[in-house]
Specification:
The complex is a heterodimer of chains A (about 230) and B (about 400). In chain A, about 25% of the residues lie in helices and about 30% in strands. By secondary structure, chain A is of the alpha/beta class. In chain A, the strands form 2 sheets. Chain A has a 7-stranded mixed beta sheet with strand order 8-7-6-9-10-12-11. In chain A, strands 1-2-3-5-4 form a 5-stranded antiparallel beta sheet. The radius of gyration of chain A is 17 Å and the shape is globular. Chain B has a two-stranded antiparallel ribbon. In chain B, strands 3-4 form a two-stranded parallel ribbon. Helices cover about 70% and strands about 5% of the residues of chain B. The relative contact order of chain B is 0.06. Classes of the chains: A alpha/beta (about 230), B mainly alpha (about 400).
């Protein structure tokens, strides 16, 4: 078997790539060696495990492949991850912020059940059962302000969730990576209109829009937005 | 995660009670608050505070403020978000340092992870044992079993039909009876009067029909061993289904007595399963309950000009299914209203008014039947107009 030529991503720390620019594949270095989270492919190279990062399952990977300028994740970044689900994306972020910290908030007990089992051995993930719409609920667990909020929730009030959490926990100048799911807001309206409305709500709350990227080809009806507090 | 801290307006420390770094104490603390008990550590602190002449303070946990107001002379205000508390918590390490508590970043992280995990685990296990979850699992399994039995039975009909096509095609329609016949009697030659009377209770006409047809069948002689094993399998699924249905009935009677009296355990369970919990069902308006299970038709009608659906899961209720088509919409509206009342009774009170609700429904159905004995003519015209419009659209 020919091993893919895995090399560091030119822009992003702890993200790795292989293949030509048209057929780019993404990887992260496995922090929790020997464990696979969602059946992803693992490539061994020089005593390191590289986990293939599937853009169809993880929207952050889709954002990178769609040409995001910055993802604001460094080795020591502290993140608040809203909508952690079973741990697909959060595990890759955990690989990237290897010396950082992630607070993973999830409302569904069923999903969190899997998340906990998937991430007990990852020291930088703190699982939290809570409703992101009421950020006060989990204030006893968040012991320092965060550099980044990553939000991927299926809820009709996505903009409000981001605003409330940013107000409580985000540092001045901190960034938000937000995915707007048009289908969760109103399925009968056109996605464009919904995006416009949500973006207006965010702007009115003094959040600056840095970059907008449609990831329609990987996840239908989704818009990725980078914001700054 | 470290202890209970009291600060004044100027962020200077007043008093504190720490957990000695014991993670179990912390978990217990939040567990007690969740169950509406005031933890011992807190009462101790409150006593010390009142000795020093304090009587009012702010907390950011609504449960805690209620508890304090109920159980002590203190006036605990619930303020969210309280900037003072928030900045204390977000700089936890430095904040507790002022009280002389030394703790490393690493220790805080470990505690935070353990606390987060165990709080989540607690509520996961609490949630998994709830009646709601059991009802949903059982109801979904029942649905699957019914589908499976149907699927399996159509296959066995084809297979056994090679041997005794007359029995398959005309005489026996009930799947379970059919499998029973194959399992117990099997070969065409054994369909004698004694055998049939012994284990089955057919009407005379059916009995004679089976016997005559078995004697001059057009089927072929094939090996029946595998078919009989297959029939046993179907019967065992069926007996498990009956058992599960009885158990579900029992749970539903305990958890939602009014709803169960009104529409029966099966439909009640399906309604609960489709929204996720009894609480959610109780919070829904009747109009939503009416269309639960008909979401696709509803959204189709919202997106295009299609007619909006009249009923979802509740269509399975005998009173609607057997009603005249032009009564169904009216009965659905009526029934969903009563279901909504029943669900609210079940969730918010202990009253048993299911029989009364069912009587009211039956009375009103009679009224509807009396008032509208004939199908309405107007709506027919309407639908004609609609279809004409559609046609004309297509032509364009």
């Amino acid at each position: 078997m020919i091993l893919p030529n895995i090399r560091p991503h030119p822009k992003f720390v702890n993200v790795f790539i292989s293949g030509s620019s048209e057929k780019l594949k993404l990887y992260t270095k496995n922090l929790d060696k020997g464990n696979v989270i969602y059946g992803e492919k693992i490539i061994l190279k020089m005593d390191e495990e590289f986990r293939l990062w599937d853009p169809y399952r993880s929207k952050l990977a889709a954002l990178i492949l769609k040409g995001a300028q910055k993802i604001y994740l460094e080795r020591k970044t502290t993140c608040l991850y809203l909508g952690a689900s079973t741990g697909t994306t959060i595990s890759h972020i955990s690989d990237i912020v290897s010396n950082g910290l992630i607070f993973g908030v999830e409302i569904s007990e069923r999903s969190l059940r899997q998340l906990i089992q998937n991430t007990t051995s990852r020291k930088n993930i703190i699982p939290i059962l809570g409703n992101a719409l009421n950020p006060q609920e989990y204030s006893m667990l968040i012991y320092k302000p965060v550099d980044l909020i990553y939000q991927d929730v299926s809820h009709p009030e996505q903009a409000n969730i981001a605003i409330r959490n940013a107000k409580l926990y985000l540092k001045e100048g901190g960034k938000i990576i937000l995915f707007i799911k048009s289908q969760s807001i109103k399925s009968t309206e056109k996605p464009k209109e919904i995006f416009k409305n949500e973006l207006n709500t965010l702007k009115n709350a003094d959040l600056k829009v840095l970059e907008k990227i449609s990831i329609d080809s990987y996840a239908g009806g989704h818009l990725g937005v980078f914001l700054e507090k | 995660m470290v202890g209970i801290f009291i600060i004044d307006e100027l962020e200077s420390p007043i008093n504190f009670q720490d957990f000695d770094g014991e993670i179990n104490k912390i978990i217990e603390f939040y567990g007690l608050i969740g169950e509406n008990n005031l933890p011992q550590e807190f009462t101790k602190l409150l006593e010390e505070l009142s000795e020093n002449g304090y009587n009012e303070f702010i907390v950011d946990n609504s449960n805690l403020s209620n508890l304090i107001n109920q159980n002590s002379n203190f006036n605990a205000k619930h303020e969210v978000p309280c900037p003072l508390i928030q900045s204390f918590k977000l700089n936890l390490r430095n904040s507790v340092n002022k009280y002389g508590v030394q703790i490393t970043e690493e220790q805080i992280r470990e505690r935070s992870k353990k606390l987060g995990e165990s709080l989540a685990k607690k509520s996961i296990s609490r949630a998994s044992g709830k009646d709601d979850i059991l009802i949903i699992q059982m109801s979904n399994t029942l649905d699957l079993l019914k589908k499976t039995i149907n699927l399996f039975s159509t296959r066995i009909r084809e297979w056994y039909g090679l041997h005794f096509p007359e029995l398959t095609d005309k005489i026996i329609e009930d799947h379970v009876v059919f499998s029973k016949l194959i399992s117990i009697i099997g070969s065409r030659e054994n369909f004698t009067k004694e055998n049939l009377q012994d284990k089955f209770s057919f009407k005379d006409y059916t009995l004679n029909e089976i016997i005559t047809q078995s004697q001059n069948s057009m089927g072929a002689e094939i090996d029946l061993d595998n078919i009989q094993k297959y029939a046993d399998l179907i019967l065992s699924i069926e007996s498990y289904r009956t058992r599960l249905e009885n158990d579900l009935d029992e749970i539903m009677n305990g958890a939602t007595p009014n709803l169960t009296t009104l529409v029966g355990a099966l439909i009640g369970a399906k309604l609960v399963a489709s929204v996720g919990s009894i609480k959610k069902l109780a919070m829904l308006p009747a109009s939503t309950i009416q269309l639960l299970g008909a979401e696709r038709a509803l959204f189709r009608s919202l997106k295009s000009n299609a007619k909006s659906p009249k009923h979802g899961i509740i269509f399975q209720w005998h009173g609607i299914r057997s009603a005249k088509p032009w009564h169904r919409g009216k009965i659905s509206r009526l029934l969903s209203g009563k279901i909504s009342i029943a669900a609210k009774l079940d969730y918010f009170s202990d009253k048993l008014l299911g029989d009364q609700l069912l009587n009211e429904v039956n009375q009103k159905i009679e009224e509807i039947k009396r008032k509208y004995p004939n199908p309405p003519k107007k709506s027919q015209k309407k639908s004609q107009n609609l279809s004409q419009k559609k046609r004309s659209k297509k032509r364009r």
